[in-house]
Specification:
The chain has 84 residues and is mainly α. The protein is 40% helix and 10% strand.
């Protein structure tokens, strides 16, 4: 399991980072064009959640099943930090 303090720390960092890059929604998607080394076709634009794990673009289990399963909660907590 993921300790509440760890989840809270991640959500605070996510909220802070989004605000510092002029994004006000933890639920938005971002479109980008991957290069080589991801699981997507290079040079073909894709759209993914702005708050995502490494496993969403690469062949890895990062950030782990326990934390990854809580991403919606982390997004919600991050949004509350943004809205303050």
């Amino acid at each position: 399991t993921v300790p509440a303090a760890a989840r809270d720390a991640v959500s605070r960092i996510v909220g802070w980072k989004l605000l510092n890059t002029f994004h006000t929604s933890a639920w938005d998607k971002a479109t980008w064009t991957p290069g080589t080394g991801t699981r997507f076709t290079p040079d073909k634009p894709i759209s993914l959640a702005r708050v995502m794990g490494h496993r969403d673009v690469n062949y890895t289990a990062c950030p782990g099943a326990c934390l990854y399963s809580q991403f919606d909660r982390i997004r919600g907590d991050a949004q509350r930090h943004i809205d303050r």
